[in-house]
Design goal:
73% of the residues lie in helices and 0% in strands. It is mainly alpha-helical and 319 residues long. The two termini are 28 Å apart.
Length: 319
């Protein structure tokens, strides 16, 4: 039955977020050796083949038809930019800090909806937005180290993801989640090729060091056998993780599943501690608590407004 199995939905969401946390750990471990564009290309190509195969077997060729291409392509492009910024930030930020800053995206969605799209946002949600930005300042540090390029990249990742979330509203209702996933991943593959060609032409000499810029501009190289399998695994994780998240919201009510998205921060903190000995600071933990509180505040308000509007809708009498 659609939208009623909350327990299954929570398990699926938790599993999908766990998979994406594994992806973060693998990519962070590759940041000193491989090009980020090479990683994105391999991941996208593998995931695209997997999604194509599944769609061909389960939903047949009609599912490949796209009714509203531009919103999906813009969403995929923004997600690609968010992806690059986030993983470049991981070269200089602990996993917990990067994940927490990335979760400022819902706060940005609320703010942009009011400022750019003139949507009505009450004082409660504006209070949650303010609380969320206070949380980000705490995570960045009491002195506000916004000059750190990694912090700016993480904020850029959150902003790009927020834009992609807003664009989702304009996707044609006839385009299924599988169709959107296929063309979004194709957009990832396209931009990874374009950016790689730009880097090859304009930056013929490999960038030295191990920071964000070096991760982006580094030359492609033949991976070892183990790393080759890990790169392929990234594509499988992308496919499996996306499936789990989409399926979670299909089998369970949104209100039952959405609050558990914050497990992503906990998974990130766990992998950071186990693999790199990254212990979240007191200010980071305080920021996480404030950010989760502000997002849940916005979420609760959205659900209350949705319920109120549902009751206000005129009912059509039976004939």
């Amino acid at each position: 039955m659609h939208g009623t199995d909350s327990v299954t939905g929570i398990y699926l969401l938790s599993g999908g977020l766990f998979l994406f946390s594994i992806q973060d750990a693998i990519i962070k471990s590759f940041s000193d050796d491989y090009s980020l564009l090479q990683i994105v290309f391999t991941r996208s190509a593998t995931a695209l083949i997997m999604i194509f195969t599944v769609m061909l077997v389960t939903v047949r060729p009609p599912a490949f038809r796209i009714h509203g291409p531009w919103p999906i392509l813009i969403k995929g492009s923004c997600a690609f930019l968010s992806y690059l910024c986030y993983y470049m930030a991981l070269t200089r930020l602990p996993l917990a800090d990067a994940a927490t800053i990335a979760f400022s995206a819902p706060i940005m969605v609320t703010a942009m909806s009011a400022l750019l799209f003139r949507e009505r946002v009450g004082w409660r949600r504006w209070g949650a937005v303010l609380l969320g930005f206070v949380a980000i300042i705490l995570v960045v540090g009491p002195k506000g180290h916004f000059s750190n390029p990694a912090v700016l990249l993480a904020l850029g990742a959150a902003f790009a993801y927020a834009v992609s979330t807003i664009v989702t509203r304009y996707i044609d209702a006839r385009d299924t989640a599988a169709t959107a996933a296929f063309y979004s991943m194709a957009t990832f593959l396209f931009w990874s090729i374009v950016c790689s060609l730009v880097v090859f032409v304009f930056w013929p000499e490999e960038a030295g060091g191990s920071g964000p810029l070096a991760f982006l501009l580094r030359d492609w190289k033949t991976p070892s056998e183990i790393d080759q399998w890990l790169l392929v695994l990234l594509g499988l994780i992308a496919t499996g993780g996306f499936y789990c998240l989409v399926k979670a919201y299909m089998v369970a009510e949104f209100s039952a599943v959405a609050p558990f998205e914050y497990l992503y921060i906990l998974w990130g903190a766990m992998f950071g501690l186990i693999l790199w000995g990254e212990i979240p600071s007191v200010t980071t933990m305080a920021g996480i608590v404030l950010l989760v509180t502000s997002n849940l505040w916005i979420f609760r308000r959205e659900m209350a407004l949705r319920t109120r509007n549902a009751f206000r809708r005129p009912r059509i009498p039976h004939r």
